[in-house]
Amino acid sequence: MSIFKRNPDPIGPLDYSRRFSLRFTVGLTLFFLYAPIVGLIVFSFNDSRRNVVWRGFTTDYYVKLFNNDALMLAFGNSLTIALFTTLFSTVLGALTAYVLWRYRFPGKAIYEGGMAMPIVIPEICMGVAMMVFFARIGWPSGMIWPFNLSAITIAHIAFSFPFAAIVIRARLESFNPELAECARDLGASEFQVFRDVVIPHMKPGLIAGALLAFTLSLDDFVITFFTSGPDTVTFPVKIYSMVRFSVTPEVNAASTVLILLTLVVTAFALRMQNRNNMLGSSGH
Amino acid sequence: MENWKRSAQAFFAAFTPPTFWLVAFFIVPLSLIWLYSFSMKTGVTDITLNWNLHQYARALEPLYLGIFWKSILMAAATTAICLVVAFPVAIAIVFSKPTMRMWLLLLVILPFWTNLLIRTYALIAVLRTNGFINGGLGWLVEKGDWLLSLVGLGDNTIIGPFEPLSLLYNNTAVVFGLVYVSLPFMVLPLYAALDRLDRSYLEASLDLGAGHFRTFFSIVVPLALPGIASGIVITFIPAMGSYLTPDLLGGTDSQMIANVIADQFKQANNWPFGAALSFLLMYATFFALAVRAVLMRKEGRGDVK
Amino acid sequence: MSDTATAPATGEPIIRIENVSKIFGGTVKAVDEVNLEVQRGEFFALLGPSGCGKTTLLRMLAGFEVPTHGQVIIDGHDMSTVAPNKRPINMVFQSYAVFPHMSVEQNVAYGLKMDRCPAKEIRERVAEALDLVKLGSLGKRMPDEMSGGQRQRVALARALVKRPSVLLLDEPLSALDAKLREAMQLELVRLQKTVGITFVIVTHDQSEALSMADRIAVMNAGTVQQVAAPTTLYEAPANRFVADFIGKINMIEGDAMKAGEGEVTVTAPGIGEVTLAGSETGKVALAVRPEKIFVADNEPADPNVIKVKGKVGEVAYFGSYSNVFFDIGLAQPLQADISNVTTDVEEITFTAGEEYWVYWRKADTLVLSG
Asked: Can you state the percent helix, strand and coil of chain B, rounding each to 5?
């Protein structure tokens, strides 16, 4: 990257990206975006509770983190919820995408609008609706693990699968319908076509959709906050209660773990998406 | 695309599960609070549906109208700041070399994927009384005073002693936090709009004697208007409905509408009123989305090559 | 290589390009040490295959690229680093770049507004410019209500209304269909003669350049190969590239030795030794245009021709002429465009395998190096 290397070529009138003022703005913006996060990560290794002056490197807080049973339980809850959410969201998202991509049916525009609703309405509205819903229908609480997480999981699936549907549908748009017709011509049934031709093409989209659902579920705070009870605390909800209490290196360490996890999943998703695009362009 | 009737069985096999989920776990819950919004609280846990607009009337009382207005103002301020910051960033990204462009885009999107709660928490560490900003300023004052003591003006005769600024728990902190979490929302649509913009329009404008600022305001802004509108709307909507940022960064007087809604469902335990407020927030959201849809349709028409 | 002897106009050139190079990203040499002069009032074409640097050169004239080395002098002033909005030059873009959010009139008036012309003058000049490009009645239209050809006229009017000292046109006809393109070629020439402004056009289409331009600079790989009038380019190309790029040509590889003042003796397989006008020595190509080749049943007696025996290969009939390939025992067959001057079908029919004497005048033979 040539940010610091001098480029001998004179700056042309439209080389905006090479102007100092714009570079400075971009640099400042990126600093604004990243400095707090980097600070948070760095100070999770700081050997001081005061958290503002560097006192030396330590991994104590990570050790404390892993010995904190309540936090570990919350982490386990979060992963369990995310896993089930991913599974259901991918299947439901794929079916939605397939229906919208494949069929014409009356009221389709309204149906599409309905599917987009969980994405666009404010989280708080969905959160309170879910809270009221589970309270009102008397969803059993106090079930044994992992069934006590069912309410949260159901809510997570409800807002995640429309996102997955969008990603998977984008992938389907690059599908050449002649392939399906060809398979039918060669004697495959509707289901066989779906299984042998459509699903393999959808695969990168399915993976991207699954990863998206996973991060959405793992990251969600607001909706979870309204559907969780005292015995069903998730990682973000736990961090929230710690944050309310005070800024401590333990919270930094816990946050760092979550950031790392999302980063890995994101990197994986981006790689999938890249391959997705490549396949998409060559498959046309 | 084919008519669903031609393979009704396959259609229903795929159509039923997601539709069931959407109806049972989204439409029904929403309908439930929609019904609540026309109800009255008649006891500690008793709620009676009586189809009157009492809750909505209460929501229009000055106190709550004020909070709505405040939410709109905070979201508007956030959107305006994001627009001003994001425009140069989007321009710089669009005019970068392709590899650089990919990295810059990734850098802008990445915080997006980081937990909202964590990002907000990170800001607390920056802004609080003994946070990074105050710590940095305190250090500067201390060192400055030391420098001045070399010429006999030390011991806080001119500057200091340092009083930490109260940067947290006020409206400014909320807007700051909202800008921090919303910025990628603004950069992406602006980037997309500028990327679609044929560069020869800019060159033609320069060629005809316009400077860079004239070109920006008379060519770039009008042509990127749908993208700008889109960016404004998709920054504004989540900002207006945000719960976590005012909750963690705001003071007692920086409550936004989402915090009031949460209060009604948690502490105040007045579900019907909270339901009415929720629906008012949702209607505002739909209105903003409708504005965006109209502007996007305009883009489809004006996009000539 | 530049050959400015045939310049038709007189006086100080309006554009002087001196040792101009453009290197992108420190490695890609788009334009390499180019020297060029464009005379006041002429219709000048930059011609070359895609990627030859012609567009980069044009963009340096407009000011969108800054030369890495060298100077661009316009009307006696060094403009190398002057911003595009401060140059007395206007451009018609390949995509026309007619602002879609402005009416035709607003588009044409845009440049004058930037010059802070009084409103009355703007109105008059816009009307005049629209009349000039025959769009007088369409001033209120929006660009998306117009055809591609009309939008191009808007782009022309928008540039000409500023009365630039040079008008640049970047592949102006490439987006038009074949019929419109021919009409527009004539129109551009008419327009240029009417307004008397120097036109510099970039094109990859040789017929466009040949039919419109007073002079053409042929470019390849960032360098100027030859600058000359269309007839000179075709009849006396400076090197193999120009000969090959413009029109069809036969080339026979050979070796040349100096034979006398302005004469060389070329030895080539199948032809033997011939002495021709020329100065290039070493590895050369004997080149001859297909339409300059004749065919005879018997060996021609004229000593001033080069003759070989050839066997008819592929034949393509084009009505007014036939394009016939003759196998003369070399790797490349010799192609000849034989004029179909009689109505006797028998006589103008060539059958594969037939043997003829194929010949052309020594005076029509070019000795090319490079």
From this structure: 75, 5, 20
User: Cβ separation of C26 and A12 shorter than 8 Å?
Assistant: no
Distance from CA of B31 to the nearest CA of A (A): 8
Q: Is A219 helix (H, G, I), strand (E, B) or coil?
A: helix
Q: What is the ipTM of this complex?
A: 0.86
**Cβ within 8 Å of residue B56, ≥6 positions away:** B37, B276, B280
On the question of pLDDT at C5 being above 50, the answer is no
Supply the range of the domain harboring residue C225: 15-244
- Single out the residue of B256, B169, B121, B267 nearest to residue A238, CA to CA: B121
Query: What are B134-139's contacts with CB under 8 Å, separation 24+?
Result: B134/B164, B134/B165, B134/B167, B135/A52, B135/A53, B137/B162, B137/B164, B137/B165, B138/B162, B138/B164
> Using one digit for the tens of pLDDT, what is the confidence trace for A96-146?
999 999 899 999 999 999 999 999 999 999 999 999 999 888 888 777 778
- Contact predicate C14/C40, CB 8 Å: yes
**C47 bridge partner residues:** C203, C218
DSSP label at residue C292: G
Which among A7, A9, A33, A169 is the top mutation candidate for probing chain B, defined by the most B β-carbons within 10 Å of its own β-carbon?
A: A33
* Domain harbouring C68, CATH code: 3.40.50.300
Strand order in the sheet with C272-277: C272-277, C263-268, C250-260, C282-288, C366-368
Q: Which domains does chain B have, with CATH numbers?
A: 69-106+172-300 (1.10.3720.10)
Residue at A152 is within a domain: yes
For residue C114, give how far its alpha carbon lies from the nearest alpha carbon of chain B (Å): 6
What is the token pair recorded at C49?
Answer: 């295959």
Which tens digit of pLDDT belongs to each residue from A188-208? 888 888 888 888 888 888 998
β-strand partners of B41: B47
Q: Answer yes or no: pTM beyond 0.90.
A: no
